[in-house]
Amino acid sequence: MNKFILLGLVLSVGLGSCNRFEYSTDQSFDRNSPRDLNATNLKKLGEGKNDKTVRFILTGDTQRSRDETVSFVKKVNEMTDIDFVLVAGDFTEFGVLKEMEWIARSLAKLNVPYMGVIGNHDMTGRGKKVFERMFGALNYSFSYGGTKFVCHDTNSREYSFNGMIPNIPWLNSELQPEEGVSNYLAVSHVSPISTDFDTTLVKDYTGVFAQTPGFLASLHAHSHVYDLFYPDDSKIPYVVTSAMGNEEFLLVEIINHKISFERISF
Q1: Which of 73, 151, 163, 165 has the largest CB neighbor count within 10 A?
Q2: Residue 263: beta bridge partners?
Q3: Which residues of 65-99 are buried (b: 16+ CB within 10 A; e: fewer)?
Q4: How far apart are CA 129 and CA 132, in angstroms?
Q5: pLDDT at residue 142, as a whole number
Q6: β pairing state of 227-229 and 238-240
């Protein structure tokens, strides 16, 4: 065979399969990587202005749990009247692109929109850059059915406890009174009782929630086990969902300005 023809064949095979391999753990995207998933799914969700009841799923810590994530999607798709799913961080174990793509590919099969916040493991290596490109901003908010969901980064240890994460001024601004909003919810990965949360910010963090009229709850993941606690006298519940690998999630309902939680196994 002519050596030039052979060279052409080798090059065409190599180029044709360029997306079959992960070249480096430093890779932050490839041609199949989804982009801006939070914004895309929020457009699908809309504002739910006519909803009298908000029902959503809270899950987290999908890392190393691809099979369980597939089972989770099947379970959620069998349920009725679910508005959306919130994934409270740790999509990945090592912050690697392929990990995040695998989980995103499974969650894309949900019948309802899903949004996510960043977890501490998602910030490993180049994970922060991967997350920002694939999902969007680390701090963002949206309103649905009269409730404002304030999603934010609480991975203090990943910033060497620099006193800036979580971003208290940003939270203050997002929790100001707003037309059409009656209730507020916070969603993040690390809870304020975790050793991975900046202890110098716990009082300010819980304080900004306590002073917000209509604040219903603060939702988290990270510890891999269900927990419900009250860190101050505000009577605001702080709730931690179990890990995906434990085959359990939370069904959260908001009805008439009251919130409830149900643990569901799958």
Answers
A1: 151
A2: 250
A3: beebbeebbeebeeeeebbbbbbbbbbbbebbbbb
A4: 5
A5: 98
A6: antiparallel
pLDDT given for residue 76 in this prediction: 98
The architecture in CATH of the region 52-265 reads 4-Layer Sandwich (3.60)
Inter-helix orientation angle 97-107/127-134, to 10° = 30
| Per-residue pLDDT at 17 | 39
The contacts of residue 23 (CB under 8 Å, 6+ apart) are none
Residues 6+ apart with CB under 8 A from 30: 19, 97
pLDDT number for residue 30? 64
C-alpha closest to that of 206 among 188, 221, 222: 188
pLDDT at residue 33 in the model: 82
Low-confidence ranges of the chain (pLDDT < 50): 2-23
**Amino acid in the structure at residue 183:** N
Q: How far is CA 93 from CA 62, 102, 151, 161, in A?
A: 9, 12, 21, 21
Whole-structure pTM value: 0.89
Q: Long-range contacts of range 238-245, CB-CB < 8 Å, 24 or more positions apart?
A: 238/191, 238/192, 238/193, 239/58, 240/191, 241/58, 241/59, 241/60, 241/88, 243/60, 243/61, 243/65, 244/59, 244/60, 244/61, 244/62, 244/65, 244/68, 244/69, 244/72, 245/61, 245/64, 245/65, 245/68
pLDDT attached to residue 32: 73
Closest by Cα among 248, 217, 247 to 234 = 217
